[in-house]
Amino acid sequence: MKSITPDECKPSLGNPDIAFVDVRESGEFLASAIPGAIHMPLSTIDSQGVDALDASTVVVYCLSGMRAAQAAQAIQASTKSVYVLSGGIRAWQAQGG
User: Across-strand partners of 85?
Assistant: First the structure.
C-alpha cells in the first residue's frame, strides 16, 4: 500500500487525473471534506466503483488513515494507482488544507 502526505498531494487539487475519495460516513463527509472529493463510504467502496472514476490515480482518505488503509486493501484489484493520505483529513487540515 502506497501513502502520500498532504503536502505531496495538495498541488494535485483540481487535476482531473487524480481523484480524492473520502471513505468516511456521510455526516463526517458533510462536516468537512477536501474540495472536490468524491464520497464513497468504506462500507460501500469496491474496485468496480473506483474503476468507474475518470482519474487514473486515487487518493483515499478518512479522519486519520485507518479506514483509508482498509479501503485501499478493499480496492487493491482496481486498475487505478491507489494512495492513502497519510494522517487523513486531520493531517490535511493541520497543514492548512
Answer: 4
pLDDT tens per residue across span 13-64: 999 999 999 999 999 999 999 999 999 999 999 999 999 999 999 999 999 9
Amino acid at position 2, single letter: K
Strand 2-4 to strand 18-22: parallel, antiparallel, or no bridges (unpaired)? unpaired
> How large is the C-alpha radius of gyration of the chain?
12
Give me the helices (H) in the chain, please. Answer: 6-9, 26-31, 47-51, 66-74, 88-94
pLDDT reading at 97 higher than 80 = no
Nearest to 59, CA basis, from 32, 40, 31: 40
Classify burial at 30, counting beta carbons within 10 Å of its beta carbon; exposed 0-12, middle 13-18, buried 19 or more: exposed
Q: What is the band of 1 on the pLDDT scale with cuts at 50, 70, 90?
A: confident
